[in-house]
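Structure (tokenized):
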């Protein structure tokens, strides 16, 4: 299926690996030119080169911290224009809320709520002027079903979700959409580190904890990054203009609520 994206420009944050890279890969496959941003220079360059060799599209890399104003400015300046924005930042560390300091909360809010909002502010009016824009925020299944050990992520990402709910309705008439992708348990470094912490707490091996976690998912497995990336690409497509302000949960059926 041709998604109608050939030749467009996308900025993908957190693109060196994991779900961010999966989104960049799926968009490049659809003919999109990519600005890939991440903090890790070596991993970012290797990932970008894979995309260049596989798809022959223009791929620009920016090593920057999206949580800083200077980093965001360099990322946004790298593309001639921005048709698609994928916001994504590593989740804050897990922990008991009793042990968290105010600085922990401020860091989480800066990276997982305020940084995406600032990026959206920067791209929204040019998108409106061109009558095309697709903004995807990679958040978390914890927005729908909070995770006890991820209180920093629960709070910061829920704040972003509330912001998007209002703004997305304001710009929908201009063929500019804003949606959130809520990943459940995917085979990423983040899942590995969380399962390692759970395994240590429970006094079991990592393999045992991973098997237990997968057994709780109706699909009986963890998700693969390409599955996530292609869902992202569809929401960015020319045919998704009637989908906005939504929170698409991709979790293998783990969430058992109706809404």
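Design, position by position:
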């Amino acid at each position: 299926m041709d998604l109608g994206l050939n030749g467009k420009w996308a900025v993908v944050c957190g693109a060196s690996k994991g779900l961010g890279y999966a989104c960049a890969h799926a968009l490049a496959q659809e003919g999109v030119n990519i600005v890939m941003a991440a903090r890790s220079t070596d991993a970012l360059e290797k990932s970008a080169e894979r995309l260049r060799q596989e798809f022959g599209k223009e791929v620009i890399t920016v090593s920057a911290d999206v949580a800083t104003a200077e980093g965001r400015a360099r990322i946004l300046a790298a593309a001639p224009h921005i048709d698609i924005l994928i916001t994504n930042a590593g989740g804050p560390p897990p922990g008991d809320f009793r042990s968290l300091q105010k600085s922990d909360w401020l860091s989480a809010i800066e990276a997982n709520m305020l940084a995406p909002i600032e990026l959206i502010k920067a791209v929204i009016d040019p998108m409106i002027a061109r009558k095309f824009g697709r903004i995807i925020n990679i958040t978390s299944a914890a927005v729908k079903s909070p995770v006890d050990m991820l209180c920093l992520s629960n709070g910061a990402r829920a704040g972003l979700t509330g912001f998007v709910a209002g703004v997305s309705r304001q710009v929908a008439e201009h063929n500019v959409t804003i949606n959130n992708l809520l990943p459940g348990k995917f085979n990423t470094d983040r899942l590995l580190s969380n399962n390692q912490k759970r395994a240590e707490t429970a006094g079991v091996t990592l393999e045992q904890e991973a098997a237990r976690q997968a057994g709780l998912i109706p699909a009986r497995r963890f998700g693969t990054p390409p599955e996530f990336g292609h869902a992202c690409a569809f929401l960015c497509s020319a045919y998704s203009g009637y989908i906005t302000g939504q929170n698409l949960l991709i979790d293998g059926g783990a969430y058992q609520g109706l809404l």
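Reviewer-requested clarification: Strands lie at 9-13, 33-38, 59-63, 84-87, 133-138, 176-183, 247-250. The mean pLDDT is 95.
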